[in-house]
Design brief:
Elements: E1 2-6, H1 14-28, E2 32-36, H2 42-52, H3 55-58, E3 63-66, E4 73-77
Parallel strand pairs: 1-2
Antiparallel strand pairs: 2-4, 3-4
Length: about 80
């Protein structure tokens, strides 16, 4: 299962949406979350990365891939046991 989350750069409830997506991934044993935040959204990307680096969420996923070019995306990969 793949979960796709699209965020606008000025979103105020970013942490709530990310926490909800992580819970959904945990509940359904998803293999990937794709977080799209758009171009030229450096602050939004930093907020996403800081949220994902929190200890309780870092333990859930196995790999984090950040796009370097084009439309900004972060891929969160899971390896469930």
């Amino acid at each position: 299962m793949k979960i796709k989350l699209i965020l606008s750069p000025g979103v105020t409830d970013l942490e709530e949406q990310l926490a909800e997506a992580m819970e959904k991934a945990k509940r359904h044993k998803a293999e990937l979350i794709e977080i799209s935040y758009g171009t030229h959204a450096g602050e939004t990307k930093r907020r996403i990365i800081n949220f994902l680096m929190k200890e309780e969420y870092r333990q859930l996923y196995s790999r984090l891939v950040k796009s370097k070019e084009g439309w900004g995306r972060v891929f969160v990969h899971f390896r469930w046991k």
